[in-house]
Protein: Isoprenylcysteine carboxylmethyltransferase family protein
Organism: Dyella jejuensis
Amino acid sequence: MRIPPPLLAASIALATFASCEFLGPLWISNTYISSVALVVALLGTFMDVSAKRLFVRQGTTVNSMTLNATAIVISSGAYRWSRNPMYLGRIMQLFALSLYLASSIGFLSVLLFAIYLDRVQIRAEEQALTQRFPLEYSTCRSKVRRWL
């Protein structure tokens, strides 16, 4: 049984905020750390949103829980560098939040989220895409790495 990644990501964001309330920050935030966190968050958001826009333009689903509705294998835009730019963008956003809030629970949660995505979610998606688009997805896998 897989957990929808957006729900899991929202839970991680809430846990990150809550952990700061109870555990306090790992360090005192400063302008440099805040600036780095902002840049990482913006890059992650751009990656996530641009990848979703490609899906919408191509008429395929962004819902990773309904893989049978996938209409096409996309290999343009951010998908030239990563097979999972939406997940990579979300990880960047959560990392930026953890950095900004200096949250130990946040950093640990982001790591566990990335492991979950890599070992559970993405493996299931890749299996489904391989079955649905054997030639196209095999070509994509040979040219593009899973993350970067």
Observations:
- The chain is about 70% helix and 0% strand.
